[in-house]
Amino acid sequence: MKCILFYKPYGVLCQFTDHSSGAKKRPTLKDYIPIPSIYPVGRLDLDSEGLLLLTDRGRLQHRLAHRQFAHPRTYWVQVERIPDQLALKTLQEGVKIKDYFTRKAQVKILPEEPFLPPRNPPIRERKNIPTCWLEITLTEGRNRQVRRMTAAVGFPTLRLVRVSIGFDKRAPHKKFCLNTLQPGQWRELSTAEIKMLSKII
């Protein structure tokens, strides 16, 4: 089984080929990962950053990505303005987005800005409007879900970084984290990590 962890930078497509018709091709996973026949487990939007797991096992990909299995994924989210307790509780309990309600989530304000590599390009800043960092853990991964959740309660997302992916919902401590990876870097899972993953498929 082949599995790697990758720190997807901002502005990189979460696929190996850019199928757009535009004259200028966008960066893809192929620009960073020279390994054939592996595919991302879940997705990160073009304007999102952070941890991505890739594997050559379709069953593992489905087992970790599909929301029916409720594997936790944690994000650090910079939002515009400071959410109040009502906004936090709404995010925690579930937000109505179009025709569905999001599942319950773990949401808290981080006491200080997390240590992350600078984004290129940096976020737009407005001097008169403060920002805040949230830690949000979801057990589903709908399209642009985090951004839609924070927008729905009035606090637009400015920067979104996935920092961990859980692979055993019964044991929250069992997860992969960014740790020392930098944007554009990847590493293969160790034998011990592969062995742990193999138990769920």
For the structure shown, list the relevant keywords:
201 residues; alpha+beta; Pseudouridine synthase
Give a quick summary of the entry.
The chain is 16% helix and 27% strand. It is built from four helices and eleven strands.
Alpha-carbon distance between the two ends = 11 Å
The CATH homologous superfamily corresponds to Pseudouridine synthase
- Mean pLDDT over the residues: 91
Provide the low-confidence segments as ranges.
Answer: none
Task: Annotate the secondary structure layout.
Blueprint: E1 3-8, E2 39-40, E3 49-55, H1 58-65, E4 73-80, H2 85-93, E5 96-97, E6 100-101, E7 106-109, E8 131-138, H3 145-152, E9 157-166, E10 175-177, E11 186-188, H4 191-198
Can you offer a commentary on this structure?
The protein is an alpha+beta fold. It has a single domain (3-198), classed as Pseudouridine synthase. Helices cover 16% and strands 27% of the residues. The chain contains four helices and eleven strands. The protein has helices at 58-65, 85-93, 145-152, 191-198; strands spanning 3-8, 39-40, 49-55, 73-80, 96-97, 100-101, 106-109, 131-138, 157-166, 175-177, 186-188. Strands 1, 2, 3, 4, 7, 8, 9, 10 and 11 form a nine-stranded mixed β-sheet that branches. A two-stranded antiparallel ribbon has the order 5-6. β2 and β3 (49-55) form a beta hairpin. The longest helix is centred in the middle third of the chain and has 9 residues, at 85-93. The radius of gyration is 17 Å and the shape is globular. The N and C termini lie close together (11 Å).
